[in-house]
Amino acid sequence: MAPGILAQLCLLILIILYWAGWLETDWPRKWAYGLAVTAWWLTSSPPLAMKEAWWIHPGAVVLLIGLAITLGQLCLSRAAVIISFGVFSGTALFLWHEYARIATDWADPLFRLFCVAVFVGVGGLFSRSVKEHLACVLCGSVMLHVWIASFHREMLMPLIWGSGDFLDTVWLSLLVMLGWRRLRAFAANVHEKWMRIPLRKEE
Known about the structure:
By secondary structure, the chain is mostly helical. The chain is 70% helix and 5% strand. It is built from 7 helices and 3 strands, in the order ααββααααβα. The protein has helices at residues 5-19, 29-43, 58-72, 76-99, 109-126, 130-151, 164-196; strands at residues 48-51, 54-56, 159-161. The protein has a 3-stranded mixed beta sheet with strand order 1-2-3. Strand 1 and strand 2 form a beta hairpin. The N and C termini lie far apart (62 Å).
């Protein structure tokens, strides 16, 4: 599968889940659909050359804007906590990346799956809401991308901020995170209704 295709598929799945009522948002439905389609279009676009050795992918701009908006909706103390755990998860993954001598980019599938597990797990342990979990995943992925780009910029020329493999990893993490939280809420509702059912008395 070509880099970036998985990110587009994850976005399409999120749009379908929102249309089916499995996902909720504070924005009006027309705004939510418009933003989702715009994010999909930018993610499917090719990277743009800012300089000869530095490129930026429009899909990465979507993630940065999403991170800024999400952090802006949190109080200062909680935003500081989420940023600290995002920096921790990104830095820890980079240390493992260097220790295991993984390829300098995001092309290694095992590394990407491990990133998804760490981003979703760390955010699930220390976040109190979907917004905090979302911000933690985005902050950790951006931090890891900064570390890799900073230490391996000479080997990654031209340096693409937001490569297709990076976008695949982030959007897969967001899809797994939202699906996991939704299933957990569904299981809690089922458990609550089941506990209210009175037990049948034995005759």
